[in-house]
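RECORD CONTENTS
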Amino acid sequence: MSQSLEGLTSTQKLILLLLGVNSFKPVLNHLRLQKMLTYFLLILGENDNERRDLLMNAGFYPHKKGPYSELIEEEMNQMALEGLIDFEGDPTTARNIRLTPRGKEIFEELINKLSQKRHISILEEIKKYLNDQVVTDDEILAIIYLDILGQSELGKEFISKSTEIRRIEKDRTLYALRLYKKGKISLGKAAELAGLSISQFKDLLN
């Protein structure tokens, strides 16, 4: 029997919403999906205690890859088995993650019953920002580690065991330049990401 909306867990519903917004555009890969959900939960919480609870309830914990959730992988696998999503590879390396026709039907049901409509607009913006194929995965990690997570004590806690952040930090100026030239971040944000003043960063553009 095919899955119903009532049978979905809260994490499965969140994955469904992310895959459904922006006209069902597929998520490029597993890394992007994990980071987009991290970003969403951080925005949703009103304080660090609430944000920590939201992240931990979705299975996120400090990991060598930064905030990482094995629960999301398990939920993705279950949703694939139930015919709601499809992807290339396995849940740990998934690419081109998308809703099936049945998944799209459940998404529409979920949208109609969703009380917090602002969640949709937040997810739309996050997906537009972090699911852009002209931006590389490492550039996405630079945004996540150096900006989104690097600005708070909670964020730093969740990247405390990351080996990836040390690799990204070595080339932070390069990533800032690339993201600025691609129009993904402002001049001020690019300078901040590079760890430079605006005037120092401008000198790099000449």
In short: Residues 5-132 form one domain. The radius of gyration is 18 Å.
